[in-house]
Each structure stands twice: as structure tokens, then as C-alpha cells.
Amino acid sequence: MENKLLELTNKIYSEGVLKAEGEGKEIKEKAKNEAVKIVEDAKKEAGKITEQAEARADEIRKNVLAELKLSANQSVSAVKQKITDLITLKLVDKPIKEAFRDKDFIKKIIEILVRNWSSVETGSAGLMLMLPEKDKAEIENYFLQKQQELLKSGLEVKADDTLTTGFKIAPKDGSFMISFTDEDFSNFIKSYLRPRTSKLLYESDE
Predict the structure, then answer these.
(1) d(C-alpha 128, C-alpha 122), whole Å
(2) pTM score
(3) Looking at residue 159, which CATH number applies to its domain?
(4) Is 88 exposed, middle or buried (0-12, 13-18, 19+ CB in 10 A)?
(5) 144: helix, coil or strand?
(6) Chain-wide mean pLDDT for the chain?
(7) Are 129 and 195 in contact (CB under 8 A)?
(8) Pairing between β-strand 167-171 and β-strand 178-180 as defined by DSSP bridges
(9) Secondary structure of residue 156 in the 3-state scheme
(10) Distance CA 157, CA 178 (A)
(11) Residue 78 maps to a domain
């Protein structure tokens, strides 16, 4: 009886040990698999983060290079423009200022302009010529002595306190006005010369 009880006890113990070992192995295997999966997932996530970081770094690098290139191009363009402006200024401003100090030059421009002004544009009202106060007497006297027919055609000469050089001319009806000052001529000629000067200086750089 005791032997059978001992055998039964041993059997139960052996089966329990075997079962425990089996379950332990299963748990261990499962834990191992889960650990492997966690490591693989971590590697994948790390790889993904690394790729995103590299892509972002590459994007930043490209943006920085683009900004640097743009800044460099703008700086070069600004320098080129400055040089062009200085050369144009040297070519234009001084000669024009000297020309506008020449009263004979001004008289000739006014005479040509008045003679060729279309009667269709001025109608029968005639023209109004506005001059700097300092020039009015001399130029008006010139027309009185040598170009009386222009005054008789309706040309009226007035002083304009806003003018220091040149003149303004307009129909007497005030429909429009054209300014002929040294600054007007200078700006007009600069606008013509500037692109051509730039082309002469830098066309080989393009």
C-alpha cells in the first residue's frame, strides 16, 4: 500500500516537474520571441528616425545652400548695379548740369519745342512756359527780341518758384504739363544708358 502511494506520489511529482519545465520553456521561448520582436521594432523605429533625420538634415542643407546662393547672387547683383549707377552718374549728371547752366542751350530747346508743338494738341489757347525766377527775364527778353512770332502765336512766359533749372511747358488750358529740368533729362538718359552700360560691363559674365 505504501509502495503504491509512493509510486503515485513520484508519478505526480515527475509529471508536475515535466509540466513545469515545459511551461517554463514555453514562457522562456515566448519571452525570447517577444524580446527579439521588441529589438527588431526598436531597430526599425531607430532606422525610420535616422532616415527622417537624414532627410531633414539634407533638406536644411539644401535650403541653406539655396539661401547662400541667393544671397551671393543678390550681393553680386547689388555690386554690379552700384558700379553701373556710378558709371552712368559720371557719364550723365555732370554734362547735363553743365548743359542746363547754358542759357543758349535752354533757349534752343524751348524754341525747337514751341515751333514743333502740334497745334492739334494746344488748340488755339497757345502755350504756357514756366521758368525759374532767375532765368525768366533773360529768356523772355530773348523771345521778345528774336522770336516775337512765337510770343504772338500765344506763348506766355511765367516764373515758377518750384524750378531751379530748366523749364516746364503746358497748354494754357492746363490739360497736361511736361517738365524739362536737368533732373528730368538726367533720369531719362540714365534709364536709357543703365541697361546698356550694364550689358557692356557684364555681358561676358552671363
Answers:
(1) 10
(2) 0.49
(3) 3.40.1260.20
(4) buried
(5) helix
(6) 75
(7) no
(8) antiparallel
(9) strand
(10) 15
(11) no
Q: Supply 4's cell numbers.
A: 503504491
Element (H, E) at 129: strand 127-131
What is the grid cell recorded at 148?
516775337
In the beta sheet, which residues pair with residue 131? 159
Q: What is the largest CA-CA distance in the chain?
A: 162
Number of domains in the chain: 1
3-state secondary structure of 72: helix
Per-residue confidence of the chain (206 residues) as pLDDT tens digits?
556 666 656 666 666 656 666 666 777 777 777 777 887 877 888 788 888 888 888 888 888 888 878 877 776 677 667 766 776 666 777 788 887 888 888 888 888 888 777 554 544 457 888 899 988 888 888 878 777 776 666 778 888 888 888 888 888 877 788 888 888 877 777 777 777 767 776 665 55
In this structure, is residue 186 part of a structural domain? no
Domain of 156?
A: 102-175
Q: Is residue 93 part of a domain?
A: no
Cβ-proximal residues to 79 (8 Å cutoff; 6+ apart), any chain: none
Using alpha carbons, select from 160, 172, 79, 86 the residue that is nearest to residue 127.
172
Per-residue pLDDT reduced to its tens digit, 57-88: 888 888 888 887 887 777 667 766 776 677 66
CA pair distance 168, 110, nearest whole angstrom: 10
Q: How does pLDDT run across 93-112, given as a tens digit for each residue?
A: 778 888 788 888 888 888 88
Residue 171 inside a domain? The answer is yes
